[in-house]
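ok new one. same drill as before - structure tokens go in, u give me an amino acid for every spot. 244 of them this time. try not to just spam alanines like last time pls lmao
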């Protein structure tokens, strides 16, 4: 006996359902662990399971761990990051960003790792940006020559601005101003390269990326309040299939 399809049934794709949970602030539901079976069922499975099941379980766990690790390393954490995420208020560093010790765990599978990383990067975008600035400042402190080159580069542009304002190059000699801008750009690039500023940037970016990946993948998702820039219409994500 066959049943005809219900024309009023909702057909929601996984991506649309995930977006809806994100907009309503309940995306943490997908990050919750599955409910374990009753103790009696677990005991019966343990009695009937063969001895080789232990070795198979260890191999499966190791394989899942490796797949999750590869997924974290190959994932683009900025895939869903938008400009509106930086306009939201900065989450609390102690309660929201760091949180208690039980709010950290290794993701169970690559899907959970992807879900955590993409959502945490959006939620704590301002925190990660502040940490990146701090790491760059620390790298400049450890490399005084790079800091000196950065100050000299800023000094070149400040000198150019002073000359343009005092000599009125914008009005009298606009072509001369363009020539001076090109010379200033070349001089700044040479000074920054000779002062090894690129090493400071590489160190800061590497440490920032490592901290971002570790925190975003280990940090469990928590329910968040809806914000104005995250609200979307439910009609855009949940669509009724056309009736035949």
């Amino acid at each position: 006996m066959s049943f005809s399809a219900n024309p009023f049934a909702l057909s929601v794709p996984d991506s649309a359902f995930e977006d809806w949970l994100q907009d309503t602030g309940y995306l943490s539901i997908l990050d919750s662990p599955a409910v374990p079976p009753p103790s009696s069922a677990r005991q019966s499975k343990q009695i009937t399971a063969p001895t080789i099941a232990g070795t198979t379980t260890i191999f499966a766990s190791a394989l899942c761990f490796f797949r999750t690790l590869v997924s974290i390393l190959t994932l683009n954490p900025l895939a869903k990051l938008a400009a509106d995420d930086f306009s939201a208020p900065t989450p609390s560093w102690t309660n929201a960003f760091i949180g208690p010790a039980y709010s950290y765990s290794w993701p169970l599978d690559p899907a959970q790792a992807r879900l955590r990383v993409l959502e945490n990067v959006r939620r704590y975008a301002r925190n990660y940006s502040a940490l990146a600035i701090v790491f760059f400042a620390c790298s400049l402190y450890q490399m005084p020559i790079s800091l000196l080159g950065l100050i000299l580069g800023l000094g070149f542009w400040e000198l150019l601005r002073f000359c343009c304002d005092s000599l009125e190059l914008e009005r009298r000699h606009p072509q001369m101003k363009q020539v001076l801008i090109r010379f200033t750009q070349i001089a700044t690039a040479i000074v920054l390269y000779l002062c090894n500023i690129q090493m400071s940037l590489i160190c800061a970016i590497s440490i920032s990326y490592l901290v971002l990946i570790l925190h975003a993948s280990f940090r469990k998702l928590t329910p968040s309040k809806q914000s104005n820039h995250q609200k979307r219409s439910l009609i855009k994500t949940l669509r009724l299939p056309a009736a035949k």
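Residues 13 and 25 are 18 Å apart (CA to CA). and btw DSSP finds eleven helices and no strands in the chain.
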